[in-house]
Write a structure and sequence with these properties.
- By secondary structure, this protein is an alpha+beta fold.
- Among the domains are: 225 residues, ATP-grasp fold, B domain (D-amino Acid Aminotransferase, Chain A, domain 1); 113 residues, Recoverin, domain 1.
- It is built from 15 helices and 19 strands.
- Strands 7, 8, 9, 10, 11, 13, 14 and 19 form an eight-stranded antiparallel β-sheet that branches. A four-stranded antiparallel β-sheet has the order 3-6-4-5, sandwiched between helices.
- α14 packs across α15.
- Bound molecules: adenosine-5'-diphosphate (ADP).
- Adenosine-5'-diphosphate binds next to β4, β13 and β14.
- The site of adenosine-5'-diphosphate has 20 residues, from β4, β13 and β14.
């Protein structure tokens, strides 16, 4: 904390809410530019839809979703078609306002005609989603899982998953949705912030009881009932990697805009909260991604009517302290220069090594190459010689497990939109923007030689105007004019369909990417030769 300003650069900047650069030219920031926007309900749904179009089987862990109000007619038509095809299908849908959290404004419906489009919350854009009617129950209650994921780097992609998470329970026994129980939030919504107001809410005194438990305690129970928890973990890891692969194209656009390549700037990392629901058959379903997961390790308790006190929450402490401690260990800049100094070390005083995170560093205690903070007695000491370094083994084992690049081989074929985003970024031209102008789009078409007698440059301009206008009218805030990444992806898919009509969508897009990359490489080669000449 720097209440009186700061003169020297820091190794790590820990921002509360979002990335804001404030003239940071070095070090690491705990937030990515654009993360908040990228994981909003609508943006996430759009990114997942693109991936579902390309890889329907791989991305079936995200419920079918529609964006309101613009896709209301599509929602109505698709539901009608599915009902016609299967008259016994009795679906339920969940409507979630965009940008909402903690269950704010969420409601369940049985029919598209029940959507409320007026009223202050209802007039906000929203996502309507297929409701998962058969969740796994424990003690007859619905619950969801909050897992912490560290996105340590975007380029190259590095992802870590915390080995334990939180399970948050409903407070009314679950029944499949009927018109009678649709409004019962304590039965259908697992949000802690809602259920805490239920008379049945139980503050957990240990990690395996009450309304908030550790995920590992649930896994223990499942395992004792003979469930294949190894497969469950592997499915969860795969869900997390695939979701981040869906988010990276957009994040890269924001990143190059805020931190242009080749200019001094910080690197970023971020702890994300993944909300996952388990179906009865143990299939994990992604509900949402939180850019700012709560790291509170206390909860409020009402001592007497109207008198509240913050008391420690053992379950939160068990999971969250380890996540923060290990994030700091993984991004520890001193790790790279171990020879100079050591961040955490043990002074001579007796006692166990702490598992609690290091205290907030203030100007007077900020680490410098020659001073260190003892994490047990919190005294500022001279750095030990390199030979006195504390071995990593003296710390508790890492709760964050690397999953990418560890499993990169299995997932790299999914990174198609990343390659489309690389083309987009290449033609953005002026650094600092996130939108492509008409000239940039024309240059892309020209350099990749995509226009011909059937597709004139006039048709290129019409495609640009049509798609850009539609995306810009969708009620998303715009600081800049031009074509956003998602609009470019749509235009790219359009071009791919035109060029490779007979192929399935995935092959159309993959072929066009290869063609563009090839032509751009050839152009670069030619320019190099001309340069030499
Ligand atoms: P918020 O950000 O407001 O918490 P969520 O998307 O997390 O919104 O939804 C709130 C709760 O609603 C979830 O914790 C979950 O219990 C329930 N929920 C959300 N989506 C679904 C779904 N598709 N099927 C079943 N339950 C859902």
């Amino acid at each position: 904390q720097f209440p009186f300003g700061r003169r020297l650069p820091c190794d790590i900047y820990w921002h509360g809410v979002s990335f804001h650069d404030n003239n940071i030219f070095s070090g690491q920031v705990n937030k990515f530019p654009g993360m908040m926007e990228t994981v909003r309900k609508i943006t996430l749904s759009r990114a997942m839809r693109t991936m579902q179009d390309l890889f329907p089987l791989e991305y079936n862990f995200y419920p079918r979703s529609w964006i309101l109000p613009e896709e209301l007619p599509l929602f109505v038509a698709e539901v009608r078609m599915m009902k016609d095809r299967n008259p016994s299908w009795k679906p339920t849908f969940i409507v979630k306002p965009d940008g909402g959290c903690q269950g704010d404004g969420i409601y369940l419906i049985k029919d598209p005609s029940d959507i409320r489009l007026t009223g202050s919350i209802q007039s906000r854009p929203a996502v309507v989603q297929e409701y998962i009617c058969k969740p796994l129950l424990v003690d007859k209650l619905k619950f969801d899982i909050r897992l912490y994921v560290l996105l340590k780097s975007l380029e190259p992609l590095e992802i870590y998953i915390a080995k334990d998470g939180l399970s948050r329970f409903c407070t009314e026994p679950y029944q499949e949705p009927t018109l009678k129980n649709l409004h019962q939030v304590f039965m259908h919504l697992t949000n802690y912030s809602l259920n805490i107001h239920s008379g049945n809410f139980i503050h957990s005194a240990s990690v395996n009881t009450g309304s908030k438990r550790t995920f590992s305690s649930i896994l223990c129970r499942l395992s004792s009932r003979g469930a294949d928890v190894k497969k469950l973990w592997s499915d969860i890891i795969s869900l997390v990697i695939k979701t981040i692969i869906a988010l990276t194209p957009e994040l890269k656009v924001y990143y190059q805009s805020d931190i242009p390549a080749g200019k001094p700037g910080p690197t970023c990392f971020q702890i994300l909260g993944f909300d996952i629901l388990l179906m009865k058959n143990l299939k994990p379903i992604l509900l949402e991604v939180n850019a700012n997961p709560s790291m509170r390790i206390e909860h409020e308790q009402e001592l007497s009517p109207g008198v509240f006190e913050n008391v420690p929450s053992p379950v939160d402490e068990e999971v969250k302290v380890a996540v923060i401690r290990d994030t700091l260990r993984l991004v520890d800049p001193q790790k790279k220069k171990r020879k100079d100094t050591q961040v955490l070390w043990r002074c001579g005083a007796p006692g166990p090594f702490p598992t609690a995170p290091v205290q907030h560093l203030t100007e007077s205690t900020r680490l410098t190459p020659c001073s260190i903070l003892c994490c047990r007695c919190q005294s500022l000491e001279q750095a030990p010689e390199a030979s006195e370094e504390l071995p990593e083994a003296a710390l508790p084992s890492l709760c964050l497990k690397q999953v990418f690049p560890k499993y990169a081989k299995q997932f790299s074929y999914l990174r198609l939109v990343d390659r489309v985003a690389a083309l987009f970024i290449r033609f953005l031209g002026v650094k600092g923007t996130t939108k492509l102008g008409p000239t940039g789009f024309r240059t892309f078409i020209r350099n990749c030689k995509l226009s011909n007698s059937n597709f004139s440059m006039a048709a290129v301009d019409i495609l640009y105007i049509d798609i850009t206008r539609r995306w810009n009218s969708m009620g998303i805030e715009h600081k800049e004019s031009g074509m956003c990444l998602q609009a470019f992806v749509e235009a790219f898919f359009c071009l791919a369909q035109k060029k490779y009509k007979s192929l399935p969508l995935h092959d159309q897009v993959a072929s066009l990417i290869e063609l563009c990359e090839c032509r751009l490489a050839a152009l670069r080669g030619k320019r190099l030769v001309w340069g030499c000449g």
